[in-house]
Amino acid sequence: MKAQGGRFKNGHFGLEVTFARSLKNAGYNPAIFKYSLGSTSIAKNWKGPGDGKMYDQMVKEFGQALSLLTKEGHKVNIRGFVWIQGESDAQTTAMAEAYKGGLKTLIGDLRKNVTKRSELPVILGVDEQHGWVKKNIEPPNALERWIFFTSLRPALDELGALQISSRKHLALLHIE
User: Fold this and answer.
1) CATH 3.40.50.1110 applies to domain 15-174
2) Does residue 125 carry a pLDDT above 90?
């Protein structure tokens, strides 16, 4: 796992550390793959499969991470996907309206072509406190079966981050 760029010069880690610890404490041996950059949008940065942008780079690096784990003798069982993004897609009304379709395209490709798991559980998160989100986007609560939404509202302090990680852990256990 590498640090997330965008906020501090040397990067930073987020909720994934507490999430991994929570899973480990529950008896799992998690391998967390993190690919992120703050202040990005599906519309401008991630784009769609085959567009040569952030989504394609994430898929490439994910494949490299899986290969490395396999070469080291680990049995890899992809159990879920956590997507915390969307604030920058609420920048304009048009971007916000296109967000759901773009997100469904990415999740569909991830399930069909990357993980080969048509019902791969997905946990979505978005920071509803962001000004653009309050104005232009509704939380994607029920895109479809096997997609769960968690609020990031309390993630403004350490206790809030722990609560978010606990919710992600419980959601993942719920969908097993």
Assistant:
1) yes
2) no
